[in-house]
Design brief:
This protein is 53% helix and 13% strand. By secondary structure, it is of the alpha/beta class. It folds into three domains: 123 residues, 3-Layer(aba) Sandwich (Rossmann fold); 154 residues, GAF domain (Beta-Lactamase, 2-Layer Sandwich); 177 residues, Hypothetical protein af1432 (Orthogonal Bundle). β10 and β11 form a beta hairpin. α5 runs parallel beside α9. 34% of the residues are buried.
């Protein structure tokens, strides 16, 4: 550790030299100045821990030099030395930040004791600042980990969760780019699921990119060894082949840091941090590495949660789809009805520019739209003749029955709206709620047209199916009464040949 640096400022060369000699014998590094200008020049160019400053200097007041020192280097402790001290000047010196005051002729013991106390206060202040900085850093890290936990436990889709975590990684680790890749089922390749910032995509990293582990021994080591892996361009200790360097350090990247995402002692993916600047400008300290690991673990938990959720969702959907198929089989004249209306609904939604996420809800809702008919008696459901008023009242309960069946399945919230509202009419004369116009959810308005397309173009016991041209005419006639005019317009824009192709694809007839 270098010796503490002391500046002696006095217009008397003899005093200056004597104090300097004494302080050097005490092990200090000493600088001296006879004028205020010379003292200020030293403060600008050197780190000064403490100063002995004469109150009277030939070119300016010692108080002016004191103010300069505290402005330039606030941590420097200053002891004023003067034979002309007054109470006013002492108070003013303390107000400007002086540590103490020593009267001339100086008492060596008093000077050394004052310096010792001043330097001790400086050390304590430095340690306190460092401790505060470390505590602040720990607090920020804790807040970040809490935010990571909040994101992971949210109901956002996996892509959104990983995108948020990639952004947090870039900001906290102070790197240029982060991409998060998920390991596939047989652990043979990684798939890029999130990138931040997106503006750096010209680095030849894109969402959906696949990284076969057979092409990257480095990624393979990370996945199999569950350890972080630092990489630097031109590193002679860990040389890369040109192919792997192009994969790991694209474009302007000079270094990379690979962090495995581990949950339950199993790697589910890898976080890749890329840095364009020289590694030494922002090195990965042990604390950063540990924080990286913690955040990567959060991402791993998000992936595991998503996989479990998707598995549960697939099981639920498979069960409900089986119910829908059983219902189609139960109503002989409507076999494959659910599949056809699903395809018709998706084509209408695409024509109307409905977002993909909403189309997924529509696809499932169309498949399950009549699931409530499970609760309707066969005598009513399979009756060939006209229903009585009481029978019709029971039949009209099936949307509400279906809604209640799906009510506890949170991930089917969008689908429930279709099941409940698919018999509502644009003019408000439908059931079960009598909704009208745009108060009917858009997916249900789309489905109502799709359901009618299939009703007209499919065989029934009491009539033969009609063609799509007749369906066009009938549905156009009911625009603004039974159907949303915008959905009808979308239906009419699609060529008949395409509707016929969809029907054939869904049923083979």
């Amino acid at each position: 550790m270098p010796p503490e640096s002391i500046l002696v400022v006095d217009d008397d060369p003899g005093t200056c030299e004597t104090l300097s000699d004494i302080l050097e014998l005490q092990g200090y590094a000493v600088h001296s100045a006879l004028t205020g200008e010379a003292a200020e020049a030293i403060v600008r160019s050197q780190r000064i821990d403490a100063a002995l400053l004469d109150l009277r200097l030939p070119d300016r007041s010692g108080l002016d030099v004191l103010r300069f020192m505290k402005d330039q280097a606030p941590e420097t402790e200053v002891i004023l030395v003067s034979g002309y001290a007054t109470l006013t000047s002492a108070i003013e010196a303390m107000r400007y930040g002086a540590f103490g005051y020593v009267q001339k002729p100086v008492n060596v013991e008093e000077v050394l004791s004052g310096l010792k106390r001043a330097l001790e206060r400086q050390r304590m202040a430095r340690e306190l600042r460092q401790a505060n900085a470390e505590n602040l850093e720990r607090l920020q890290e804790l807040e970040l980990l809490l935010e990571t936990a909040r994101v992971v436990s949210s109901r956002l889709e996996l892509t959104e969760v990983l995108q948020t975590l990639a952004e947090q990684m870039v900001r906290q680790m102070q790197v240029t780019l982060c991409h998060i890749s998920v390991l596939n089922g047989d652990q043979s390749q990684l798939c890029v699921r999130a990138i931040y910032p997106v503006r750096q995509v010209p680095w030849h990293v894109a969402l959906g990119d696949r990284i076969p582990l057979v092409l990257s021994p480095t990624y393979k080591r990370v996945v199999e060894g569950m350890e972080v892996e630092p990489i630097r361009r031109g590193d002679s200790l860990r040389p890369l082949t040109s192919a792997e360097e192009a994969l790991l350090l694209p474009a302007d990247a000079n270094s990379a840091f690979l962090v495995p995402m581990v949950v339950k002692e199993k790697v589910v993916g890898v976080v890749t941090l890329l840095e364009a600047r020289d590694w030494a400008r922002s090195p990965f300290t042990p604390r950063k590495v540990n924080l990286c690991r913690a955040m990567a673990s959060g991402a791993a938990i998000a992936i595991e949660n998503a996989l479990l959720f998707e598995q549960r969702e697939r099981t639920h959907l498979a069960t409900l789809a089986a119910l829908a198929s059983a219902l189609d089989a139960r109503e002989r004249e409507t076999q494959a009805h659910s599949r056809r209306v699903q395809e018709y609904s998706l084509r209408l939604a695409k024509e109307m520019g409905v977002p993909e996420a909403d189309r997924r809800h529509l696809a499932t809702g169309a498949l399950l739209h009549d699931v409530g008919k499970i609760g309707v008696r066969d005598a009513i459901l399979l009756k060939c003749g006209e229903l009585s008023e009481e029978e019709w009242a029971e039949m009209k309960k099936h949307p509400l029955i279906g809604y209640r069946m799906l009510k506890r399945l949170d991930h089917l919230q969008g689908e429930r709206a279709i099941v409940l509202a698919h018999h509502e009419r644009w003019d408000g004369s439908g059931y079960p709620q009598g909704l009208a116009g745009r108060s009917i959810p858009l997916p249900a308005r789309i489905f109502a047209v799709a359901d009618t397309i299939d009703a007209i173009t499919s065989d029934r016991p009491y009539r033969k199916r009609r063609g799509f041209q007749e369906a066009r005419e009938e549905i156009a006639r009911c625009a603004g009464t039974q159907f949303d005019p915008e959905v009808v317009a979308a239906f009419l824009r699609v060529p008949i040949e395409e509707w016929e192709e969809i029907q054939w694809r869904a049923t083979g007839s």
